[in-house]
Design a protein that fits this description.
With 141 residues, this protein is an all-beta fold. It has one helix at residues 28-31; strands spanning 7-13, 16-22, 43-46, 54-57, 65-69, 74-81, 97-104, 107-114. It has one domain. It starts with 6 loop residues before the first strand and ends in a 27-residue tail after the last strand. It comes from Actinospica durhamensis.
Length: 141
């Protein structure tokens, strides 16, 4: 069982978005220095739409696979980057990647996954999934 040490709430009202957070700085911020989110506790989403296992990458780009996560599996998004590589293998041109905690390679590990295959909200014009919220839903682990 995890103890939540950070809480963030994203509110959208009248077209404005504000994020409020409490708690310690995130270790994920170091892995996502210009990223969005920076949670010490992940927001939980699901892998969806991949034709097989979603490739987990060592960096925010293709061709450095370190594992795979099946459709329907939970992923804890710790932060996002919107300047990674595209996914030319699937004909996708977004540059948004999620740094996640997920079960792969026989245990709970960390890596980068292409945001298109995670059930975060649609990306805004800058490439962010604006509802990436620390501590969203329950940790399945």
């Amino acid at each position: 069982m995890r103890r939540i040490t950070a809480v963030a709430v994203t509110l959208a009202a009248a077209g404005a978005i504000a994020t409020f957070s409490t708690g310690a700085a995130s270790a994920a911020t170091g892995n996502c220095p210009d990223g969005h989110g920076g949670c010490s506790e992940p927001g939980w989403y699901t892998v969806s739409g991949s034709t097989g296992n979603l490739a987990v990458q060592n960096t925010d780009g293709v061709n450095n696979v370190i594992g795979g996560i099946p459709n329907g599996a939970p992923v804890g998004v710790l932060c996002q980057r919107n300047n990674g590589s595209t996914d030319p293998y699937d004909g996708l041109y977004s540059k948004t990647w999620d740094y996640v905690e997920a079960y792969f390679n026989g245990g709970w590990n960390y890596g980068w996954v292409y945001d298109h295959y995670v059930t975060t909200a649609a990306q805004d014009s800058n490439g962010w999934s604006v509802t990436v919220v620390c501590g969203f839903t329950n940790n399945p682990g």
